[in-house]
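Input.
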Amino acid sequence: MITGRDLVIDLFAGPGGWSVPLRRFGIRDVGLEWDEWACKTRAAAGLLTIRTDVAMYPAGIFAGRTRGFIASPPCQAWSMAGKRLGLVDQPLVHQAVADLAAGRDTREKLLGACRDERSLLAAEPMRYLRALASAGEPDWVAMEEVPDVLPLWKQYAAILRSWGFSAWTGILNSADYGVPQTRKRAILLASRVRTAEPPPPTHARFAEPETLFGPGRERWVSMAEALGWGATDRPVPTVCAGGGPGGGPEPFPSGARKTLADARDRGTWTEPPALSDIVLKPQTRGAGWTARHGTRGNSPASGPAPTCTSKATHWTWALRSNNQPNATVRSIEEPAGTLFFGHRANECTWVAHPDHVQAQETPAPIRITAAEAGTLQTFPADYPWQGTKGARFSQIGNAVPPRLAAYLLAPHLDRTLTADDFTLAA
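Output.
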């Protein structure tokens, strides 16, 4: 039971992107969430949840009890993956925030003028913050959204400063904090008790050595490292419809579930090369490897990605973000691009590229699994995702990466993190 002023409120809590690090810190948040499957995932993970419409729930009920405040409003209205009507509605959202900060509730009128009814959800955190401010709360605030929401976060920050907070806003790249994904997000951090500032990056595109001016930074974490590709006791990559060593036990993770015999008949499967023909590029065991296989065996030498060489073809694998002509395609030696699903649900696919031109046949693309997507978001490998295939992917794509959340929250909770001591996906 949460008593005193130790309550952490998490609006639009989703499946638990903020909750995972909070639990590691020994703190339980109360998540407010409407989506049925996200609530069931949270329940399966043992997280406290109130299933409710955040826009309808009485905000004053938390006054006098709240230490921390978190909000990640739905991004569909603003995201590049959608129609982006939130940008059209942005003046109305700014007006709603200003009105709510002044104690005027004009949401119903403004909602009628919005092109996308979800746009105004980005103003809801101010309704709660106004109610909490009457009790001198909260001590700290952390909010996250897609980059186009940054002007709105700046408005929030100006209001919070007028209430006695220190506030910072900016765009952070998740890859700079050890997330195997170059997911950029607009961040708002505010505090009544310390200077609000972004956490120092722990990773960079290229490794940086320690200097007199500060600690070094590790190289960005690749998809191969995160998923454990190329790090096995039996180094035989599966050249099977793109399943790869990171695809788990199911060689067809798309949901169609074809057998290997069917794959052979359809010409989408290539016999694995003989052991004597395989050469593996050295690979550092990542969190995905540890979660799947434990710590047995000897670790291969350092290096981020597997390369399988046979007498016929030398394949490398990449993740394609969707089926559009301008889709982001990233090699497994790199972090993924931003993972998003929704109306293009589960269209992130592994695609094979031959390094040698004389390839007789290219393995068919295969859709990424929910387990892989969750790992690339830095959720624990055994996270209990609930719901249909589409519901699971939607939860994963909309969640804040727990590892990024950990670095954002740590200073406000008097915790210190390093690049090595908080492997969330392990």
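Confidence is low (pLDDT under 50) at residues 231-313.
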